[in-house]
Amino acid sequence: MNFRIFKSSIEKGRVTLKLDEAGIVALPEIENIxxxxxxxxxxxxxxxxxxxxxxxxxxxxxESEIIACSNPLYDIQRFGIDxxxxxxxxxxxxxxxxxxxxxxxxxxxxxxxxxxPKFVIALGDCAxxxxxFKGSYYTxxxxxxxxxVILHIPGCPPDPLTIMRSLLSFMHDxxxxxx
Amino acid sequence: MNTQDYIKNILDSAxxxxxxxxxxxxDELYLTVSAADFAGTCSLMHKKLDSPVxxxxxxxxxxxxxxxxxxxxxxxxxxxxxIFVRQNIAQDDPAFDSLAKNIYSASLFEREIxxxxxxxxxxxxDLRRLKLHDEVWPEGYYPLRKDFIAPRxxxxxxxxxxxxxxxxxxxxxxxxxxxxxGIIGPGHFRFSSAGExxxxxxxxxxxxxxxxxxxxxxxxxxEAVKIFERVSGDTAFGYSLAFCRSAxxxxxxxxxxxxxxxxxxxxxxxxxYNHANDMGGIALDVGFSFPAxxxxxxxxxxxxxxxxxxxxxxLKGINAVGGILQDIDKNKAVIIREALGxxxxxxxxxxDMLLTSVSFMDRxxxxxxLRANTARDLGITGVAARASGIALDLRKALxxxxxxxxxxxxxxxxxxxxxxxxVRIAESKExxxxxxxxxxxxxxxxxxIKATGQVKxxxxxxxxxxxxxxxxxxxxxxxxxxxxxxxxVDPSFHNWDALSFAxxxxxxxxxxxxxxxxxxxxxxxxx
Lengths: 179, 527
Ligand code: SF4
Known about the structure:
Number of strands of chain A: 5
Strand content of chain B: 15-25%
Bound molecules: iron/sulfur cluster
Helix content of chain A: 25-40%
Largest interface: A-B, 53 and 61 residues
Number of helices of chain A: 6
Shape of chain B: globular
Order of helices and strands of chain A: HHEHEEHEHEH
Helix content of chain B: 40-55%
Structural class of chain A: alpha/beta
Structural class of chain B: alpha+beta
Strand content of chain A: 5-15%
Number of helices of chain B: 18
Largest sheet of chain B: 5 strands, mixed
Oligomer: heterodimer
Largest sheet of chain A: 5 strands, parallel
Radius of gyration of chain A: 19 Å
């Protein structure tokens, strides 16, 4: 197998496909948004922006799109955005889901574990106000009812480009350079 | 032999009397037995039909008839139908004889019935709650009862959840979750390990419980489709399909053939993007990042294809009661064919990369073995079942549009991570063939994609072999066509349990790998 990759890279000069050959549309928009993002992150967050994600009862599609942001097409990491495992390493908390009763404590604890300054981003329609699950006996109808939310990214689920665009406009509006 | 005679013979052989057979449809038989006979009849069905408990739930009928009803559903492969054993429970003493003593696959359902309805499964030793965690939900509030009123202020927390304790020299406990290191749903895993090998794993789930079954009550069917698309986001199409089929049965709608074929195409597209995702996930969890990234692009290309043909990456807004809202015309068929040609090639390269890598195969071979017997006892379904030698595939097992298409159900025997990977590869290939056969047939189909029917009351069972396994929806509509009770079973409901058996004896670093090879839904399980 390794030999074959090696052989094909000698023969063809590369081992991967061009995106359009793979049937994937690579939008120039990704690069444009990315470039702006990178600039804004550089100016306001000292080169990188780290996010800790918490699911508080999402259906999983929002997660799927957040993960897609890191696939080789969008590759959001190259613009300075990284998803981290520990809340201690995070600038922002990204929350999906309507906040089920079972998750309230875990959500609060994750938030508390983050260093200051910190802020919360809610992603997806159900994180805003419960969305399709609004009024259920077991959800709290949105992240705002538990933690202060600074940005909401709408969609059910928002696609990767929407996520990138929202983060960009957030960066633009973000008041000052992080101390 | 027809279903009714077949079941009658079985009952006669054990001298069990039923107060009524109700062959509701070609594939749905209900038999009502006395409380004293309920457990016996279920055990008999379990044995004779060689079926686990596929679904088991209660219904609050106190207002109309002063009872709770209990339904236990089995699958009869011989007659290609579902058999429901039904019992009435008096409202002043809500209890029944536990099935779990004889049938393991009933045990989780019984715990659910207890916490949601307050109906006691007498004799079941494990009554811990699954979804309404003691820490936040007081005792005595049963959400699925009709007269349920949510507690105003939450009273003091109940007693803390009891994890099983494994004792002995050198045993230590590792708690993980509910918040995990990755971008993934919440669950709590409690490992007990002796050195490296896992000797016990207890899962505590329910963190993403949203109360969907209660939320559905009182909704009409068009509203409910939207909820079903959001039960488990990666199965949006499978769920909405299972629901629509149950509603169509009640309304007596014959779905046009074209819509049925379109549903095959969409369902298989859903299977494809998820299988690609999992193949990559398995590679990623052993640190084999090149194929993992490659797979994530395959997934992306299928999502983009979905977007192109249906305006939704996750195939939402397509299903409707009566048929389909998004047709696939000639142009779209060309787009699909072209894209799938490329994707098929990519999946073959991915397969090649994985199966010919010695170090990768070394990690997945004989890792996370789930034995056929265990799988059978647990009643698991889907990919994991087929990897452990249980050839259950509802597309084959039950009558429907798949009878007119040719495909083979995947089956492997070893029950390890490698088998689950192979099942996924084999199924993906069948999906390509199913899609192209359906596209072929579409060209000679009448253009009708949706039929309408009369809103009616009644009960019905909808089922779909979604990518993860069997998605089952039992539903009762009231006179206005609003949902009176809806019971949903996600394939993960049993399969999570299977994971805790598959990891035994494996080292802790292999847990993520085992977990990914099952790839279960938190949201679907917790509902
Ligand atoms: S917003 Fe929509 S896609 Fe996202 S978690 Fe909620 S229901 Fe799922």
